[in-house]
Structure formats: structure tokens, C-alpha cells
Design a protein that fits this description.
This protein is an alpha/beta fold. It folds into 4 domains: 128 residues, Response regulator (Rossmann fold, 3-Layer(aba) Sandwich); 154 residues, P-loop containing nucleotide triphosphate hydrolases (Rossmann fold, 3-Layer(aba) Sandwich); 78 residues, Helicase, Ruva Protein, domain 3; 53 residues, Arc Repressor Mutant, subunit A. The chain contains 20 helices and 18 strands. The strands form 6 sheets. A 5-stranded parallel sheet has the order 2-1-3-6-7, with helices on both faces. It has a 5-stranded parallel sheet with strand order 9-12-15-8-16. A two-stranded antiparallel sheet has the order 4-5. The chain is elongated, with a radius of gyration of 28 Å. The two termini are 46 Å apart.
């Protein structure tokens, strides 16, 4: 049962508020002034304070400062009887969650209290995750309560104990494959050595080989000096090969040899160099399908797939969305000196209903953009992008909104397609244009048109 403390010098207000909230199942404490309030806070675990700013001879703002100094995480809703915008703004700047004007209706009180306590619960769950899994949380914000996430966390811990085992992480773009790879490295005995990451889809085959294995002086035209490769750089540590499914067949054969011999040979070199490195690979493609199509070597797949970890898309673990949204809202609210204290129920419903084609990366970017453009105390549905704010209006496969008109509906659909393609391709315009089947110049024009 949550405990609420009412601080108000008017007995009628205290009694009426106590009656309303007591009927809602809350434990209610009451104080007429600051001294009594501080005594109650010292003796009880209080979840929320309702604080009148006009406490007779006392200054409610000064009491608010004291409360937040004693417990910065304490949720405080301030109440003002004279509608002073200045005092309400001052209270919000001091860390108040929200403010209400007297007289207030019972239904409004119930709603804002319920919302505030839901926010407090989410914040506590995030803090508990930090405390309970600190070593992992410091490396990767594995925030969530879903069974799938718990299984991934267990897998990360287990494979981290065996520093030579190769890991293959699969999952859609934006699900956090590199973060999981970093967590494996951080929890293993290799943590003091380098973690080196490379995206295999980001460079041509000839350059990729030189980057991975290094080259000798004179190996090719621009090779003016010897250059160690990433495998050497990651020696005694971990190398993360992202988008391994995009690697050319010839490079796959050389990687297979490295995995089998635990040695590399620089481009243009004549001797093998022994390496001690854990290989973690990742792909957002179905590698079994790629094997069938002749685009991926089956023998390399089985070499990489010693310990497979599959990360499900965010839409398949929707119970994690409120915690993730709250986590990123706290992070970016601090970074940008904003005063966000929580997420409105309507906004939280929209966030949970949305399909998140870009997964966690898209969610993080949305929250960051909102914190840049807006301030608190609540993240509201009106601040969400149109494709998310309207996500609850109809099912994804339901009938279109005819009230928009044809031109506006086509624009919305086109923008959603572009946003989805960019999210899946990590904002790589070349890959997104290829995915959409349009020229890169056309995509850039449309991005500029939609303010992307």
C-alpha cells in the first residue's frame, strides 16, 4: 500500500483529501506544517507528498527545498490556492513533480496521484535493475522485466565465464546486439583488454580485409607503412563483427581460417601471427537462409554459432517499453537540463502500442528528440511523433484514416516507410535507398521534404 503525506495548514483540506485518497486504498498521513511533516517523513516510508505552498507563516517553497535536499527522489505535488503561475514554475524548477490549483476536483486528484505513483514505481524498478545487476548495467542498459530479457541476461552471464567461446548474436537492427556483445566482454576475464567493433557492411571487401588482418608496407599502392589489423588490436580481448552476413564469400573463407588456426596473416605478409581473441559476431539477416542462397558459408556459420543469442524485437516484449522509455527519459532529461518527471498514461499507451520497427534505437532517438524540443513535467502524447501519437487510432492492418484526404494520407505513409527504412539501416542513406528501391538522390530529396 502506497503512503501519501498531505501537508496543508487548512484542516478541512487535509480531512477532505485524506477521505478521497483513503477511499482509493492509500495510506494517508497528514501534517499542518513543516516540522510535523519532517517528523512523519523520518518515521514513515512516504511515496508521495501533497504540499500546499501557502502554509500560513511558513513558506511552502522553502519546505520543498528541504524535502528535496533530504530526499531528491521524493515525489512532491504542490498545491496553490491563489493560482500563482510564478510560484508553480518556481516549484517545478525546485523538483516538484506537478502542481494543482485550489479548489481541485476529487477525480483530478485521483488521476494525478495515480500517475505520480506509477512514475515512482517505474523509477524504482529502473534503480533496482541498476543495483541488482550493476556490473552488467554499467556496460549495457538491459532495462526491462520480460522473460526474454531475463533469458538474455542469463545467457550473457554464462558465456562470459568461458572467454574462448565464440558467440553469434541475431536480431533486428536496433535491438542492442553490440551492447550485448560489450556486456559479454565486460563480464569476462578479458574485460581489461580491448573491445574492438567493426561493421562488416560499412566498407568494401578489399578494405575490410586490410582492416581486419592488417597489411605490410608495400602490400598495395597506398600501403606506405605496416599497419596492424583489428584482430591484433583486440588481442587478449574481444572483437565484435557486426553484420557478418554482409561479408563477401572470399573474406568469409579467410575469417574461417582465423577461427580454426587462431592466427592471422597480414595482407602482403608471409608469416602467421598468433592471436588470443574472443570473436562475437552479429547479424540482422537469417544466416540459414543466406546459406541456402549461397551467400554465406555453412562451415563458417557453425564455427560462429557455438553459443547463439537471439534478441527478440521490441514489439515482442512490449512489457519492457515503459521501463525503457522511463530510463531514457531520465537520462536525456538530465543531459539536456530538462524537468521531465514522468510520462502521461496516454503517451505511455501510445509508446507501448507502437510497433517500433527500429527497436530500442528508435525508442531512444524518439525520447532524445522530445527532450531536445520540449520540457516537462510530463511527456505527453502531443509531443510524440505523428506515427506514434496516432498508433492507437487503428490497428496496423486496419482501414486508413479517410479524414486525412488522399494527399495527406499518402504523405504520412511515405514518411513512415522512409522512417522505417532509415531505422532498419542505422540511418545509412545508401542502404535505406536500396531497401526502398529508389535512387539515393530521390531519398535525400524526400528526407529534406519531410524534415528528416
Amino acid at each position: 500500500m502506497e503512503t501519501i503525506l498531505i501537508v496543508d495548514d487548512e484542516a478541512f483540506i487535509r480531512e477532505n483529501t485524506e477521505r478521497i485518497l483513503g477511499a482509493g486504498g492509500y495510506q494517508v498521513l497528514a501534517a499542518a506544517g513543516g516540522a510535523a511533516a519532517l517528523e512523519l517523513l523520518a518515521d514513515h516510508e512516504v511515496d508521495l507528498v501533497l504540499l500546499d505552498l501557502n502554509l500560513g507563516n511558513e513558506d511552502g517553497l522553502e519546505l520543498l527545498k528541504t524535502l528535496k535536499r533530504e530526499d531528491p527522489e521524493l515525489l512532491v505535488i504542490v498545491i496553490t490556492g491563489y493560482g500563482s503561475v510564478e510560484s508553480a514554475v518556481a516549484a517545478l524548477k525546485l523538483g516538484a513533480y506537478h502542481y494543482m490549483k485550489k479548489p481541485f476536483k476529487a477525480d483530478a486528484l485521483r488521476v494525478i496521484v495515480k500517475l505520480a505513483l506509477q512514475t515512482q514505481t517505474l523509477k524504482r524498478e529502473v534503480r533496482n535493475l541498476r543495483r541488482g545487476d550493476l556490473a552488467l548495467f554499467e556496460t549495457v542498459p538491459m532495462v526491462g522485466a520480460s522473460r526474454a530479457l531475463r533469458e538474455i541476461t542469463d545467457q550473457v552471464r554464462e558465456v562470459a565465464r568461458f572467454p574462448a567461446s565464440t558467440v553469434l548474436i541475431s536480431g533486428e537492427s536496433g535491438t542492442g546486439k553490440e551492447l550485448v556483445a560489450r556486456a559479454i566482454h565486460h563480464l569476462s576475464e578479458r574485460r581489461e583488454a580491448p573491445f574492438v567493433a567493426i561493421n562488416c557492411a560499412s566498407m568494401p571487401e578489399a578494405l575490410l580485409e586490410s582492416e581486419l588482418f592488417g597489411h605490410e608496407k608495400g602490400a598495395f599502392t597506398d600501403a606506405r607503412q605496416r599497419k596492424p589489423g583489428l584482430f591484433e588490436e583486440a588481442n587478449r580481448g574481444t572483437i565484435f563483427l557486426d553484420e557478418i552476413g554482409e561479408m563477401a564469400i572470399a573474406s568469409q573463407a579467410k575469417l574461417l581460417r582465423v577461427l580454426e588456426e587462431r592466427a592471422i596473416r597480414r595482407v602482403g605478409g608471409t608469416r602467421s601471427i598468433a592471436i588470443d581473441v574472443r570473436v562475437v559476431a552479429a547479424s540482422n539477416r537469417d544466416l540459414q537462409e543466406a546459406i541456402g542462397a549461397g551467400r554465406f558459408r555453412e562451415d563458417l556459420f557453425y564455427r560462429l554459432n557455438v553459443f547463439p543469442i537471439r534478441i527478440p524485437p521490441l514489439r515482442d516484449r512490449r512489457e519492457d517499453i515503459p521501463l525503457l522509455a522511463t530510463f531514457y527519459l531520465e537520462r536525456y532529461s538530465r543531459s539536456f537540463s530538462r524537468n521531465f518527471q514522468g510520462i502521461s498514461p496516454e503517451a505511455l499507451a501510445r509508446l507501448t502500442e507502437y510497433r517500433w520497427p527500429g527497436n530500442i534505437r528508435e525508442l531512444k532517438n524518439v525520447i532524445e528528440r522530445i527532450c531536445i524540443m520540449h520540457d516537462g513535467p510530463l511527456l505527453t502524447a502531443a509531443q510524440l511523433p505523428v506515427e506514434i501519437a496516432g498508433s492507437g487510432a487503428a490497428p496496423a492492418d486496419g482501414p486508413p484514416d479517410l479524414s486525412l484526404g488522399l494527399a495527406a494520407a499518402l504523405d504520412r505513409f511515405e514518411r513512415q516507410l522512409i522512417d522505417t527504412a532509415l531505422a532498419r539501416c542505422d540511418n545509412n542513406v545508401v542502404r535505406a535507398a536500396r531497401l526502398l528501391g529508389i535512387p539515393r538522390s530521390t531519398l535525400r530529396y524526400k528526407m529534406a521534404r519531410f524534415g528528416r
